[in-house]
Every structure is written in C-alpha cells, then in structure tokens.
Amino acid sequence: MNRIILIFIFVSGCVTHDFSTQQRTDKEIESLLTGNWFVSPIDTYFYTKPGNAISSYTLGHEVFFIQYADADCELALLEAKAVWKVEQNKLFITVVGSTAPKLIPVGFTTTDEILYIDENSMALRAIGNDHTQLRTKTDTCKVRHL
Prior knowledge:
By secondary structure, this protein is mainly β.
C-alpha cells in the first residue's frame, strides 16, 4: 500500500501501552513529525530500502520529508511536502508536493491511528491494513529546507 507516512523510518520494537484514546496536541504531533530515522528491514516498502535515512521537519501544519540513499544523508533520493491534521486520534497526512510523483503522488493521503508518542519514539497503526509502524529517532542527518 502506497503510504507517505512510510517515508518515515520505522524500527522494530514493542509498544507496551495503548495510548489510542488520548487526544494529541499540535506540539506532540510536531515532535512526532520532526527528526531523523532509518529504514529497518521489517519496514521496507516500494520506495525505501534498509539503510536509507529519512529527515523531516515541520512548519506549523506542513511537514517536509527528505529520503536519502544511505545512512550518511549525503545524497537525497526524493523530497516531499505534505500537510497534516489530527482528528479523533487519527493522523492524516496529505502530499502537496513531491520530487518523485510516481512514487509519492501529490494528493495521496495516509490515515494512521496514533498508538504512542514520546520525544524519541512513536508507533502508528495504519488504518486499512492494521500494520503497526514503530520508529526511534537518530542524530544522523542534518535537516535542510526543500
């Protein structure tokens, strides 16, 4: 399933608490969407591979993603701009710009239930395929503007 949220880097792990009934603040969502991640083998999708790095940052309700060819963040493979909103503990992300529209098309929207957020990790459950995605932030990439 084509999912822009999967441009994030997700790593394996366990979610020990279900926080799905908590309402999220904009500050929590901005924290979730800002940082650097690695693609893990279990979360490899059609446009990512293990060892790729992702960097993202937010400006209000906009989020900017950069996917790199390796963990050193030296060669950007693609960039995307999206807008986000949260309703009833579901995170909606809609792509509004992409340097690779065949992989990440403009207008594509993801919907994920927020299971867990803290300052360094998060878990989302994809609505529709029930796939749980986990990620932990790293200090690898330097964030740059698109």
